[in-house]
């Protein structure tokens, strides 16, 4: 790897990965780098392929039900990124000149409810390596930069992974869920 040697490591890494929203991290387990960056229109096809590659279980959890129209979903995630208060972050795995999407989080601000809502997924082979938490942190940082004060999400009561991730990220159960789903929220502060 090359880069100006007098810059701090994080700054050098950001130079090597333009568009990254946080300093890229090395994934020692998989011998590659992970870059978290904002999605753009050119990502629709790769995002659709990523959604299709999720296991049925992960995909159903991500969308809280079955979705067949994955190209449409991917296009919506990216198209809405043009609106103020909406964005999609992608975790991209870079290894030997190849780039693959291995995670995504979509965020949308609800002006009436005065909070942002999110959904997230990590590719099955990369789960439980800390990526979910990293993407949540990057998403929260972006939401704070947008001036948002609260973030909320809903997940199935049976989704232990998401409930565990949300708890670790500092979310609390608002009690607004029902017998099937849990509503989680967090106040954002700098
Ligand atoms: C939920 C999800 C995004 C978590 O991503 P991840 O990269 O595996 O999460 P992390 O590795 O950052 O884990 C952070 C914490 O979440 C919790 N967690 C993650 N997976 C868990 C599991 N299978 N069971 C219980 N807790 C779990 C743990 O507290 C973990 O911290 P720890 O590893 O120190 O114990 C991932 O499991 C996923 O994509 N699931 C399918 C889609 C989905 O359910 N999306 C949520 C609905 S929007």
Automatic annotation (TrEMBL):
GO molecular function list: acyltransferase activity, transferring groups other than amino-acyl groups
One Pfam family here: Acetyltransf_1
InterPro entries named in the record: Acyl_CoA_acyltransferase, GNAT_dom
Domain N-acetyltransferase span(s) in chain numbering: 34-190
Name of the molecule in the record: Blr0854 protein
Organism name: Bradyrhizobium diazoefficiens (strain JCM 10833 / BCRC 13528 / IAM 13628 / NBRC 14792 / USDA 110)
Origin organism lineage: Bacteria, Pseudomonadati, Pseudomonadota, Alphaproteobacteria, Hyphomicrobiales
């Amino acid at each position: 790897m090359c880069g100006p040697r007098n810059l701090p490591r994080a700054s050098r890494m950001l130079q090597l990965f333009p568009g990254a929203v946080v300093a890229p991290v090395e994934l020692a387990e998989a011998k590659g780098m992970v870059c978290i960056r904002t999605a753009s229109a050119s990502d629709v096809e790769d995002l659709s392929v990523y959604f299709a590659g999720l296991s049925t279980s992960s995909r159903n959890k991500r969308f809280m039900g079955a979705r067949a129209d994955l190209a449409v979903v991917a296009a919506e995630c990216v198209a809405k990124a043009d609106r103020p208060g909406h964005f999609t972050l992608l975790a991209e795995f870079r290894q030997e000149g190849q780039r693959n999407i291995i995670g995504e989080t979509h965020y949308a601000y609800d002006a009436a409810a005065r909070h942002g809502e999110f959904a997230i997924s990590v590719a099955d082979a990369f789960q439980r390596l800390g990526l979910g938490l990293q993407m949540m942190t990057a998403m929260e940082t972006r939401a704070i930069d947008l001036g948002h004060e609260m973030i909320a999400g809903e997940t199935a009561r049976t989704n232990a992974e998401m409930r565990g991730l949300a708890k670790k990220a500092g979310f609390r159960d608002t009690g607004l869920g029902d017998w099937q789903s849990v509503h989680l929220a967090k106040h954002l502060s700098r």
